[in-house]
Design brief:
Strand content of chain B: under 5%
Distance between the termini of chain B: 15 Å
Number of helices of chain A: 4
Oligomer: heterodimer
Helix content of chain B: over 70%
Order of helices and strands of chain A: HHHH
Shape of chain A: elongated
Largest sheet of chain A: none
Structural class of chain A: mainly alpha
Distance between the termini of chain A: 16 Å
Order of helices and strands of chain B: HHHH
Strand content of chain A: under 5%
Structural class of chain B: mainly alpha
């Protein structure tokens, strides 16, 4: 493994492609939802918009994949992991808060659970490609 | 489709075009997926013939744009037009992105990318069928 391996090489390319698709899908969906009837489910729709922004950040950061982009990638993918778990749990416990589905509702079931699996693949990949030895702070 | 007014003959024919074309896209995408997966398992990068196969899928998708546009102009709209066109536009972008990467990454991972892209097209196509019908 080279000392400065980009997250966009090898299997990372697959990750970036799937992130890009999710980013576009989430953006299109939330743009339609927010512009059409934001009042119907403000929490769900604004959350969809936020999730879309995070996916774009993750896609861009993983596609660049070195130096400071790696820090942004950690943040974006970490927010996703937390988001899908928190919103997933909340949408099951308090479904009335989420009258309309978001990307993260029911742990991403509407998207084949890809939103649930992806951030953990992303975190694992960031850990594997990091330039310093495991355990040593960057 | 089953409204009381009854569709005109031209419209009935166009309604018949839609599902077979969608199934053709799904079948072609499945072939590309299987081929690219085979290459990935044998540790091979994407070859030109696979990109030509992906080009066939892309051509079918372009055909779908034309077909959906004609139908929309005739007033036969999908239940949720914005979502439908969003899916169609996304599906057009996925395979060219995978092809561009196939040139940049000459390892087995280009095959995995192409397989993932073809799966994505198949899933989007399925969603398009559902969205048009009102799902």
């Amino acid at each position: 493994m080279s000392p400065e391996r980009s997250t966009a090489s090898g299997p990372g390319r697959v990750l970036v492609l799937v992130y890009a698709v999710l980013a576009v899908a989430a953006t299109a969906r939330s743009a339609v939802q927010i512009s059409r009837d934001l009042a119907a489910a403000p929490l769900a729709y604004l959350l969809s918009g936020f999730a879309a922004l995070v996916y774009h950040a993750a896609t861009l950061a993983l596609a660049r994949g070195t130096g400071r982009w790696r820090v942004l990638a950690w943040c974006a993918v970490g927010i996703e992991a937390a988001g899908v778990l928190a919103v997933g749990a909340l949408s099951v416990a308090r479904p009335e808060l989420f009258a309309e589905a978001t990307v993260w509702s029911r742990f991403g079931a509407g998207y084949g659970y890809v939103p649930l699996v992806l951030p953990f693949l992303g975190l694992g990949w960031l850990a594997r490609t990091r330039p310093t030895a495991p355990g040593v702070p960057q | 489709m089953l409204d009381g007014a009854g569709p005109s003959p031209a419209r009935r024919i166009l309604s018949g075009v839609w599902t077979p074309l969608a199934l053709a896209v799904i079948a072609a995408a499945a072939v590309v997926t299987a081929w690219a997966t085979h290459s990935a398992l044998r540790n091979r990068a994407v070859v030109l013939r696979q990109l030509l196969a992906a080009g066939v899928v892309e051509a079918l998708l372009v055909g779908q744009v034309a077909e959906a546009a004609v139908r929309s102009l005739r007033g036969d709209l999908p239940t949720d037009p914005a979502t439908f066109w969003g899916y169609l536009a996304t599906s057009l972008l996925v395979l060219p992105a995978a092809a561009a990467w196939a040139f940049a990454e000459r390892t087995r991972w280009s095959s995995v990318v192409l397989a993932a892209a073809a799966v994505t097209v198949g899933v989007l196509e399925f969603r398009m069928l559902v969205v048009w019908a009102g799902g």
